[in-house]
Design brief:
Length: 111
C-alpha cells in the first residue's frame, strides 16, 4: 500500500482557496453526478450499518413529524432527511475529489 503524503496547513489552505474556481469545481460535480447512484447505495449501506436508519432514528423522525401534523408530514420529514443526507454526501465527495486534485497539482508545481 502506498504511503499517503502529509500536507501542511498552508497547502490545504491554498487548495481550499483554489476550490473557488468554478471550472475546477464543476468538473468534480460532473464526476460525482455520474457516480451518484453508486455513491448513494454506499451511503445507504453505511448509514444502515451504523444504525442511523434504525429504530432510534425512525422514532425521532416520527416524534418530529407527529408533534405538529399528520401522516403526510411524517413522509415529508423522512424524505427531507434522506435528501439532505444524499446532498451532503454528494457535495462532500465533490469537495473531497477536487481537494485531492488540487493538492496533487500544488505538489507537482512545487517539484
Amino acid at each position: 500500500m502506498a504511503e499517503r503524503p502529509a500536507y501542511t496547513a498552508e497547502e490545504v489552505d491554498a487548495a481550499v482557496a483554489a476550490l473557488g474556481d468554478p471550472e475546477r469545481f464543476a468538473h468534480a460535480q460532473e464526476i460525482v453526478t455520474h457516480a451518484a447512484p453508486g455513491l448513494q447505495r454506499v451511503l445507504g449501506r453505511a448509514l444502515e450499518a451504523g444504525g442511523w436508519f434504525g429504530e432510534a432514528h425512525e422514532n425521532e423522525v416520527a416524534k418530529a413529524a407527529l408533534e405538529a401534523d399528520e401522516h403526510t408530514r411524517l413522509m415529508a420529514v423522512r424524505t427531507l432527511v434522506a435528501e439532505e443526507t444524499r446532498l451532503a454526501m454528494l457535495v462532500g465527495a465533490a469537495v473531497g475529489l477536487e481537494l485531492g486534485t488540487q493538492l496533487r497539482r500544488q505538489r507537482e508545481e512545487e517539484s
